[in-house]
Automatic annotation (TrEMBL):
It comes from Shimia gijangensis. It comes from the Bacteria. This is DUF2484 family protein. The keyword Transmembrane helix applies. The chain crosses the membrane at residues 29-47, 54-76. Keywords: Membrane, Transmembrane, Transmembrane helix.
């Protein structure tokens, strides 16, 4: 197992552990931080392991952080319907 996959697994572990504890802002600040850290890790996974492993990591990250994905999808749909 190479460094990029180890970093990706640590990222997933941190996201899951943090999600277990309550927060006043519904974990949004932590989610922004995870996204900022996760994108370079995703690129690193892609660079070291190829597109398919990177897509697996992307789907897993989207599954863990589903609310930012859902809100982004709603925002895109709203923009497309208005135009």
């Amino acid at each position: 197992m190479n460094l990029s996959l180890i970093l990706a697994l640590i990222w997933m572990l941190a996201a899951n552990v943090r999600a277990m504890f309550p927060s006043k802002d519904n974990l949004w600040r932590f989610a922004y931080g995870l996204i900022a850290i996760g994108v370079p890790i995703l690129i690193y996974v892609w660079w070291q392991n190829g597109i398919w492993i990177a897509l697996v990591f992307l789907v897993a990250a989207m599954w863990i952080m589903r609310w930012p994905v859902i809100y982004t999808w709603r925002w895109i749909k709203e923009r497309l319907v208005r135009s």
